[in-house]
């Protein structure tokens, strides 16, 4: 089972960004933790990060054909990118939305997600652990379908 792990704008700066909000793990470290968990589950992960909305949409369109699910932290695109939302819908894959920080306890504009209504679920505020939880839940769901 192949799962796409997608990270949006500024997530390449994890480990350098405000550590009080985003923690001190880098995106590469989070990806390594996810890969270890995926190996245990016998799942294949394909990682992608971009600061460009169009590149993320292109990736979803190209790679969703061969995937079974998507875990996405769209960063700020979460709050306004209807084009990204449409690409996720068009993929027809189950989506779990992840946020390192609790988007509901921050600025008011961050509390709105255009992705949440089309996602199977959302994990917010658990730091890097949210990615691992999303992988466990998604893999479990996909295994039930097999």
Short description, anyone?
The chain is of the alpha/beta class and 146 residues long. It has helices at 19-22, 27-41, 53-63, 82-91, 129-145, and strands at residues 2-7, 44-49, 69-73, 95-99, 121-124. The protein is built from 5 helices and 5 strands; from the N terminus they run E-H-H-E-H-E-H-E-E-H.
Description:
It is a single chain. This protein has 146 residues and is α/β, with parallel strands linked by helices. It has a single domain, classed as 3-Layer(aba) Sandwich (Rossmann fold), CATH 3.40.50.9100. It contains five helices and five strands; from the N terminus they run E-H-H-E-H-E-H-E-E-H. It has a five-stranded parallel β-sheet with strand order 2-1-3-4-5, sandwiched between helices. Helix 2 runs parallel beside helix 5 (129-145) and helix 3 (53-63) packs parallel to helix 4 (82-91). The termini are close together.
Strand order of the largest sheet: 2-1-3-4-5
Oligomer: single chain
Radius of gyration: 14 Å
Number of strands: 5
The tally of helices reads 5
CATH topology: Rossmann fold
Protein topology:
Elements: E1 2-7, H1 19-22, H2 27-41, E2 44-49, H3 53-63, E3 69-73, H4 82-91, E4 95-99, E5 121-124, H5 129-145
Parallel strand pairs: 1-2, 1-3, 3-4, 4-5
Helix pairs in contact: 2-5, 3-4
What are the key terms here?
146 residues, alpha/beta, Rossmann fold, 5 helices
């Amino acid at each position: 089972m192949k799962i796409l792990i997608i990270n949006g704008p500024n997530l390449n700066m994890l480990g350098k960004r405000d550590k009080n909000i985003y923690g001190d793990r880098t995106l590469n470290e989070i990806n390594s933790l996810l890969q270890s968990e995926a190996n245990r589950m016998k799942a294949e992960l394909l990682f992608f990060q971009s600061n460009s909305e169009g590149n993320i949409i292109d990736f979803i369109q190209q790679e969703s054909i061969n995937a079974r699910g998507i875990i996405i932290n769209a960063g700020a695109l979460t709050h306004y990118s209807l084009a990204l939302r449409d690409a996720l819908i068009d993929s027809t894959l189950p989506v779990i939305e992840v946020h390192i920080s609790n988007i509901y306890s921050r600025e008011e504009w961050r509390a709105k997600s255009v992705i949440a209504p089309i996602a199977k679920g959302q994990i917010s505020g658990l730091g890097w652990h949210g990615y691992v939880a999303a992988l466990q839940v998604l893999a479990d769901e996909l295994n039930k379908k097999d």
